[in-house]
Amino acid sequence: xxxxxxxxxxxxxxxxxxxxxxxxxxxxxxxxxxxxxxxxxxxxxxxxxxxxxxxxxxxxxxxxxxxxxxxxxxxxxxxxxxxxxxxxxxxxxxxxxxxxxxxxxxxxxxxxxxxxxxxxxxxxxxxxxxxxxxxxxxxxxxxxxxxxxxxxxxxxxxxxxxxxxxxxxxxxxxxxxxxxxxxxxxxxxxxxxxxxxxxxxxxxxxxxxxxxxxxxxxxxxxxxxxxxxxxxxxxxxxxxxxxxxxxxxxxxxxxxxxxxxxxxxxxxxxxxxxxxxxxxxxxxxxxxxxxxxxxxxxxxxxxxx
Length: 305
What we know:
With about 300 residues, this protein is of the alpha/beta class. It contains eleven helices and eight strands.
């Protein structure tokens, strides 16, 4: 059903974010220490939550096939049975190639759409691109919010557009990218998060990874609290995806701690939490080998895909 068939959307009244308190709480969460068995469990869990990503103009079918192999078998030369990642994330022309490579496995295919990363195209064109990647076999579709409309205060327009993209995505999970680095304030992040959720987002996502700052712990905390409050109000569980700048296992574990503290164990699953990363996986594997052997594994045993 088109959003034009629904009652007029009224922008939500969201609580004001205490910026100082949000920064302080994020700093406190970042000091939590995870050791021994809990650390190993967390590192393995993070592998399953990765969206292994290649979003470059130079992407080729061969590069995408290599990425998919890495997603399926993260450490091919190890004697350990490491889990596969949550998804591979590619540009629309590469969806069918990725779909062929991971067919019959637990690895999902995610595609950016709606004229990523700017979103600067007519709504009809963005909707058509979402439909194309859906029909090509994408399990998940990452779309960008219209920041121009949001920053201009046209919140009804933002909601209408996301709603249309949600309808176009069909059974595929819709991840809505807020591009928080352009939103300027935590209050804006909170409002944008709620609008995206109201419009049908299955996940809300911090960033495209194409601008700085990308994911930060305080911004992610604000988004997690929006998800928590929405769940308490409605019973609906929405997923979270920080993306951009999370390059090492130590940082990723901090995000995992924050998810557990704010949302609880129900969100410690790839169905509700993802990290968008292209370089994090190898560090997770190196840290796991260090925990197992007491020393760092040589990087030459890790695949480059």
